[in-house]
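Researcher: I'd like a structural prediction for the single chain below. Treat it as a standalone chain; there are no partners to consider.
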Amino acid sequence: MKVLGIMGSPRIKGNTDLLLEETLKGAQSRDAETEKIIVDKLKIAPCKEYLGCFKDGNCVIRDDMDTIYPKLLEADVVIIASPMFFYGLSSQAKALVDRCQALWARKHILKQSLSVPVRRGVFIAVGATKGKRLFEGAVLTVRYFFEAIGVEYADELLIRGVDARGEIKQHPTALADAFELGKRLVQA
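Model: Treating it as a single chain, here is the predicted structure.
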């Protein structure tokens, strides 16, 4: 089983990264093959809406997304992890999501089958505020992202009230919950 973790935070070793790492460790404990992509280290241009993908399902922009598309389609589990920035995904994560318009076009415009088995997706998010609606917009974005790449929204780990680097280590259950999430993903 292949588990792909997409780390959408610009803060390496921050709260989002620590949660994703624990989730991947949980999956590894069940013998899953894992890979983590650190989006902030990649060159991913924003979608320019050239609509070239409507012709053949491929984005006309050449950058690091060229290596990400196959990974998104080959993974059995896709995890996207992002801090909340203004009640939404980080700009790094959102750029990757937006560039999946090409995969959306394959499915909905060109009517191409992604011909992949049932795959699962997980959303991990951390936000400083304790706002009641903190994750609503991001969850909706991630659900549509998963639908575009042929992944079922299967689980989530959403943590409020955590901001300072490493503060997640003080949360009573967050890291253990992340590890268990990784185990569940592989077990299911």
